[in-house]
Please model this.
Amino acid sequence: MSNGALSMDEIMDLLNGVDMAAKGAAQNSSAASDASGKAGSGTSGGTSVLSLNEIDTLLKAVNAGKATDGNDTFDYSERPNKFSKNHLREISIIHEKFALMAIKSLSDQIHSKVDLRVAAVDQIFLDEFNRCIPVPSVLAVVNMEPLKGNAIIEIDPSMTSAIINKIGGGNGEQHKQWYELTGIQKKIIEGIFDCLLATLQEAWSEVIDISPKLIKIEPDPKFIRGYPPTEWVLLIVMEAKVLDAESMINICIPYPVIEPILEKLSC
Model:
């Protein structure tokens, strides 16, 4: 060991010995012999058994999530990233601009006050995004031409129900239970997404001229195909308040869609 870290061989030896340690503790027929060779391993019935100190060392190594092999260090708690900090910062700036413009355009369309701001920009796996989405929800599949592939914009049903109610002549009441959209209601929500996409196009214009187009609206992410669950995605989380409905608007852009223009986001 070096600096309190375990080599890969040592961790494998310790892991292999955990089960035998439990069995050895239950055997009263013989006591563990003194350590020889490797750091403090005992024997019971000819089988290598971990000492309490070794088990404690293993738990500390696992909790730290780190092991060393020679001069190389690998942190098991970390995952390789597709997007740099510069990428995330530039994406945040673009969508802060988007939020400011969307406030005005949505307020004009709904005839009510709208608040929208960027809460977080992160990179996660597509499966992580899908598992965080309430079902049913309102998921817009958006083509990002000339970029290849689709993005996803998700609006919580409580917010869309308030919008539908307000545009339909109500006071913006939210439905406690979500239901399948009627033809007219779907047209209203499509209009909301068209408004958002026009604003998104303008916000991205300094980086690339995109023509985002609504392909379809789905209630469940499992109906949206095209990328494996382990695909990296860029997630822009936006806090939104429309009338009395407070929720999130999530923009999910898979890595293959945005990868061709990453150099433009590294300035």
